[in-house]
Amino acid sequence: LSVDWIPQTVMAFRARYPNVEVTLAELPVHEQVAALRGGRIHLGFLPRHSLGAREDLDVMTVVESEFVAVLGARHPFATRGEVKLRELKKEKWVVMDKKVAPGHAISLTQLCRLAGFAPEFSRTAVSLPGLLMQVASGYGVCLLPRFLLPASDSMLAYLGTDCASFELCAVWRWENPSRLLAHFLEILREHRAVRKTPADEL
């Protein structure tokens, strides 16, 4: 999977509505939810597990991706194609800094608890390349959705896991009357990386 559907959607929308300015902003999860509810943004992209109570929000799955364990190329498990999460209970875990991605460590902890253990954190990183560099350097392992990862890296090994899939959702206020938002969502449905599923609440 890739995130090509984001620029494809924006370009298609701008081609159809050339006089409309589309502003892209990077916000942490909790700030996106607050901005949506406060009317400061029309649309956000959030992991489904982070949404919590959302009676006032509509969601549409745009990416569904398996969680993979990322290990250094010299790790004893590196040549395996898959690993059960509980097999990594003695590992140290590298996560994104909470100031950048506060939900990463939280979601990892939730998944590890489902597998019967609490993760031991080692280092943090402020970017995805930095996170992968820490893993490649032997400071620990990490768990990420596959669509975020480079296709291959000689210093890393990607192993399938028994974790539930990761879902990234487009999120908006169902009371938002914007016709332009409705048009943008129509184009997004054409370009998103997954087919419509019964779980979509449109």
Topology at a glance:
Blueprint: H1 5-16, H2 29-37, E1 44-47, E2 57-65, E3 67-72, E4 92-96, H3 102-114, E5 120-125, H4 128-136, E6 142-145, E7 156-160, E8 166-173, H5 179-191
Helix pairs in contact: 1-5
Brief overview:
This protein has 202 residues and is α+β, with helices and mostly antiparallel strands. It has 5 helices and 8 strands; from the N terminus they run ααββββαβαβββα.
Characterization of the model:
The protein contains five helices and eight strands; from the N terminus they run ααββββαβαβββα. By secondary structure, the chain is of the alpha+beta class. The strands form three sheets. Strands 1-8-2 form a three-stranded antiparallel beta sheet, with helices on one face. A three-stranded antiparallel beta sheet has the order 6-3-7. Strand 4, helix 3 and strand 5 (120-125) form a beta-alpha-beta unit. Helix 1 packs across helix 5 (179-191). The chain is elongated and about 55 Å long. 26% of the residues are buried. Residues 195-202 have low confidence and may be disordered.
Broad structural category? alpha+beta
Large-scale geometry: elongated
* Main sheet overview: 3 strands, antiparallel
Q: Tell me the radius of gyration.
A: 18 Å
Helix content: 25-40%
DSSP, total strands: 8
Number of helices: 5
What is the CA-CA span between the terminal residues? 23 Å
